[in-house]
């Protein structure tokens, strides 16, 4: 097949970019040719003889809202001019003013807007007004994009329900969970000293954007107050402009919370802790959650976090309310006080992750491509040919 993938970035160290990177690798291994319509692509992909990289320059106009629209217009114009060259056009959400065969839904702005934890208010400030307008515009654009795609691929059942709320029928959707590198994220010997972590305590790990309230570190910190003193927390994320160091000090947790700032070797950090806590107030499908499962960590998460749907009762603890610090504290205490229970959860988590490898994910996308291509081929056959072809 001749495949066109339209996205902003295709590279290994980016969430959505990694998904597309792995799809490209699998497509090339299967003998397909791939064109990347993007702002940036990994050099090793661009160098491949069956990869064509068409770079769409990022706009220098002010505001992300205008920049994304300019990118979408440029991509749409290119697709319309070259549509006949491809068997499959794969886009990611709203990224181009053009029809597509496959649309991978990684994030649905309508779901974020209506989840109950959306933090912006139109009349609060200019910044809030801009964020609301940006969100509402994206809602309209995503509706258009989903309605102009043959198949929508939500990255979780949570995202599928949000796509469905936009009026898209379930028959047009195929859920494919994001993947994880099960060879990179593995259990192993801890390296706490490398990250400045104390050796003795039961160590939780929180990883995420420390500038976003939806990641919910505040509830983790309030829960930590109600756990024994031998329970500590490692926090991985960029500290610049983060309010959480001040909150840690106000709560009297300075000796028990260890900020590592940005960590480049997340597999090593995960091998150095005892459990992973991920109570995100809103998350479509967190890659870091899958990475923790693959590392063999018992996971505490919440139903509002995409990815919680893959966790069984034997591989983690899923709480109902992301803001319930007491329930979160109780879950932490249970893990910290029962090593056998925590170990069993971690072993099962590793087995769950084995079913969610990048290779398995990419093969599911290729299966969708083949089904779409076969349906189109059948539609394009002259009348009677399809029937004649099955006669003995």
From TrEMBL:
Coiled coil: none annotated. Residues 192-351 form the Glycosyl transferase family domain. InterPro entries: Glyco_trans_1, Glyco_trans_4-like_N. Residues 14-182 form the Glycosyltransferase subfamily 4-like N-terminal domain. It holds the Pfam family Glyco_transf_4. It comes from the Bacteria. Keywords: Transferase. One of its GO terms (molecular function) is glycosyltransferase activity. This is Glycosyltransferase involved in cell wall bisynthesis. It comes from Paraburkholderia susongensis. The lineage of its organism: Bacteria, Pseudomonadati, Pseudomonadota, Betaproteobacteria, Burkholderiales.
